[in-house]
Design brief:
mainly alpha
């Protein structure tokens, strides 16, 4: 036999190996006849045992599932939630931000009140010196001998 093995071909068995193979083939036919009934009874016995094990294990698994669902899972969940609360970094204080927002809102309200007060004063002529009376704006024909009513020239006070 050569040192190199050819791929795809099998080496020829020598004489001793052929004799052992022939003897094993002869023994196997006799064993099949001898152990056939025993293997059949072992098969049925094994099937019965497997069914018995399944009958016993089904309620055990159901009980274990109930325990995990009702007892173990809530405990694990609460442990995980507590751990998450301990790990979570503290929240930043929003106090400074809220103070700044409040001050801006107060400044906005003060500006709006100032604008409204200025408009109200302008409409009523307060702070301009002379107060314009509503009768000055009446459009009545001038009476001879009286001076005519002043007209508005774009000035709010009538000047």
């Amino acid at each position: 036999m050569s040192f190199f093995v050819r791929f795809g071909s099998t080496p020829e068995p020598d004489g001793r190996f052929r004799r052992l193979r022939a003897r094993a083939n002869g023994m196997s036919t006799g064993m099949a006849e001898r152990f056939g009934p025993a293997t059949h009874s072992a098969k049925t016995m094994a099937a019965e045992r497997v069914m018995g094990a399944r009958e016993w294990s089904a309620p055990q698994l159901d009980r274990a599932a109930q325990y995990v669902e009702h007892d173990l899972a809530p405990r694990v969940s609460s442990m995980l939630a507590a751990g998450a609360r301990r790990i979570e970094p503290p929240r930043r204080s929003r106090r400074t931000r809220n103070i700044v927002i409040g001050m801006c809102a107060m400044a906005g309200v003060a500006v709006a009140a100032g604008i409204l007060a200025t408009r109200w004063n302008a409409m009523h002529g307060i702070g301009e010196g002379d107060v314009v009376q509503p009768e000055q704006f009446e459009s009545t024909p001038p009476v001879p001998g009286q001076e005519p009513a002043p007209t508005m020239r774009g000035d709010r006070t009538g000047r």
